[in-house]
Structure of Carbamoyl phosphate synthase small chain:
Amino acid sequence: MSFTTAAQPAVLVLEDGRRFAGSAYGATGQTLGEVVFSTGMTGYQETLTDPSYAGQIVMMTAPHIGNTGMNDEDMESRQIWVNGFVVRDPARKVSNFRAERSLDDDLVANNVVGISGIDTRAVTRHIRAAGAMRAGIFSGADAALSDDEQLAIVQTGADMKGLNLSTVVSTPEAYTMPAEGEFVGKMAVLDLGVKRATLNYLTQHGFELHVMPASSTADDIRAIGADALFYSNGPGDPAASDDHVNLLRTLLKEGMPYFGICFGNQLLGRALGFDTYKLPFGHRGINQPVWDKVKGRVEITAQNHGFAVDAPIEGIVESPAGLGRVEVSHYSLNDNVVEGLRCLDLPAFSVQYHPEAAAGPHDAFYLFDRFRELLRSGALTQEASPEQTAHVMTKTSVANTPAANGESK
């Protein structure tokens, strides 16, 4: 892989054969991934450094990208995670007092192959019709490969369905973060691709964080004396994360309070016995409308997910895994996709969107308050109440299903 500041030919090749010619942007060479689009008008640095985008070529639908440059303060993780980056009109000059370097500088430094100058509207419309698919960006010497050679390379790329990427983006070693203000309790954070903003909000709400690798076990979590468990956002297919599902199911049965975001919502769904499925083109951006059934209002949310939980959005249902009553607490107003789950007999809830993101609306910040108040009130304890235990134990006929025993469907 080489680097250059001169505009060289580049091409975006989709697995169905569609091709979009443009100019090299960032590093040059070739890169493969699932091509997806993000509708955010701003926040490209947060998008690039969000570990949930690992394995994907991200295309920004906003035409002008890079105007405000890059800085260390807005990094959501230790590096850029996208496999590739697609923009229409990159900024020729950075203009922001907080900028420490240009976007192009960071793309080069992180070996991210990009492309600019293509019709991103046309690509977006194609993905919306055909669905997210494998793709490749070819620039430099790789741009000279024949059309057939480039397409063959793309079609050998990994499919996001069935892909487990948690261990790729997770912290290699556990670390702690002290609580700020009034101490509420110890929280075990399973890092499946967690964002810095999430950790900061949790500490600000009084949680002492023990951030743990994705390979952590139930014994690891018990050993720190955790009062609560948090599953973060992250990349990949939730159907490929059986270990995380079994871990969560085990601790839920012990009465461990749980809060999950994004990937953590999908894994709670699976732990409760629901299936997950791949969305045609996913939800990615900072302007996604969600209906909050509990509060009876619309929330404008930030989202980044290509998979969703398959559960009925109306009514209260019994968990197929025998973990009591469950209801969908939030759903998308665009396509009725499940955006939140709430357990009624266990101390657990989750949302599919990103409440820590604040590129304008602050509609979802209350979720951190909600979890803090639940622990503060003493309503949630590490031991399940006799009523919760009795309810779960009476579900033996359901709990002996393949889903309840940790088997994939």
